Protein: Putative DNA modification/repair radical SAM protein
Organism: candidate division WOR-3 bacterium
Amino acid sequence: MDRVSKIKLLIEAARYDLCGDCLLSKEIKRTKDLNRTRWIYPELLPDGKKVRLLKVLFSNYCENDCAYCSISKFMNIVRVSFTSEELAEIFVNLYQRGLVNGLFLSSGVKGNPEKTMRELIDTVWLLRKKYHFKGYVHLKILPGVSLQTVEEAVRLASRVSVNLEVPNDTYLRKVSSKKEIGKDLLEKLNRISVTKESQPGILKDGFTTQFVVGVAEESDFEILQTVDKLYRNLRLSRAYYSAFQPIPGTPLQSKPPTNLMREVRLYQADYLIRKYGFTLKELSFDNRGFLSLTKDPKESWALQHPEFFPVEITRADFFELLRVPGIGPKTARWILKTREALSTYQILNALKFYPNLRRALPYITIKGKRPRKPALQGELFFI
């Protein structure tokens, strides 16, 4: 197979691996290069910078039997692989043209996970040592590899990830007969965490995991319970969530797709735990363990805790402000920075330029007064 056809196949096969959340998906764009169309994916780094990634599989051969996967061993598809030198050359060519400035590299398991992971590591080694690429590389850790190999990957990549896909082995057995959460996945995440803590300066963009939401009838609570433990115990950088969508030809092709709003709610709940100071116990789930699809998790908490409101925004601290629907970290920092210097009118007037902040109006006071917005007017007034 010619190189262009191979690239197209392995880029298309990589689209189910997440490098950004639903909030970034609208920014995915096509970039035309001569007569070919390539997909360039944005990823937001922990420092707020955004990189343009070549997101690609090293190989779409796979020995695993994951029931939801487009490259699982039972799929009747054309199978191809790169060599390490070939893929390194392709990336460097795109990088030198200014089309990408980062690499997201994953793979199916071709024959042996250790051998396949070695080829991925060799690719990154070539980029670092032969081509002197110092930029962003996100490398997937394959299930079944040795802990020594994990450590080698951690020393070369900017970020690594191990996909749990489901919260525990009970659910994993429903979709795969070959993988174990503990031995194949959690053990790797633990070693990544230990290595990162013991060697400052490596893996500067952290490590992540991913869940296929709804693939095995797991609840939101079970997913977030697992994620919460990873954040607290292993210092996981973040988790990604992908609503299950059936793929023709897989054993789950007839399974109904997961509501995309469930993915959105999981991201919102994740943000509350990871950035807003909420605990898992404070989130609201129904009797089956699911988040509301009609209200975001922070609004649900606010409605259940009227005693916390209204929040006086001229006196509240950072985390008190974050409890208010419509106020995120950026807006909270703006309030803390400017509230001493601005008059009541200036604060009120500034709210007009923060559309999301209008959701906060029922929950706040400004110097003792409660603002309101007339239904058909743009101006804000006090009650």
User: Anything to note?
Assistant: The radius of gyration is 23 Å. The chain has two domains: 3-204, 305-382. Residues 57 and 107 are 5 Å apart (CA to CA).
